[in-house]
Amino acid sequence: MLSLDYSVAISHPISIRFRDDRIVDRLKAEAGARGHSTSAMAEELIDEGLRVRRHPLVTFRDGPSGRRAALVGGPDVWEAISGVVGGDVPGSERVERAIELFCFRREQVQAALAYYAEFTEEIDAQVTTNLAVADEAEDLWRRQQDLLAG
């Protein structure tokens, strides 16, 4: 018996007509600068644009781990969520605590929560990745301290 297990990204081709050739030129230039295909660049920009329309206090930034959602004038969404969700503070007090401890504005916390509610898996993955990187850095630091003490 033969069993195949594979994942295939299903694409949904559409045709888009641009009234201004300069938009196409900029799209192609941006795609080339980032090493993306024109289609991949268009998909990323459309996705981010749609997200920003639904969440106007969210923007997108480049970083070592790729593009990520961030609060306008503030931290990455995953960082804000890490300071609000979970912990030892009752749920009813978490927003106020985040405002006090992290100097967030109320609208930033609300924007982060709204974005997180819609894109929970994405933000949870970023939180998990950050925790793993922090744990690795701490382990390395402890080993260095052991060597120095040793």
Descriptive report:
This protein is mostly helical and 150 residues long. The protein has 2 domains: 33 residues; 86 residues. The chain has 6 helices and 2 strands, in the order ααββαααα. It has a two-stranded antiparallel ribbon with strand order 1-2. Helix 1 crosses helix 2 and helix 5 packs across helix 6. The radius of gyration is 21 Å and the shape is extended. The termini are far apart. The model has no long low-confidence stretch (mean pLDDT 90).
Q: What topology, given as strand order, has the largest sheet?
A: 1-2
What is the percentage of strand-forming residues? Answer: 5-15%
Return the structural class. Answer: mainly alpha
Strand elements, count: 2
Q: What's the helical proportion of residues?
A: 55-70%
For the residues shown, what is the average pLDDT? 90
**What's the helix-strand series?**
HHEEHHHH
Rg calculated over all Cα atoms: 21 Å
Distance between the termini: 58 Å
The major β-sheet equals:
2 strands, antiparallel
The number of helical segments is 6
What best-fitting shape do the alpha-carbon axes yield? extended
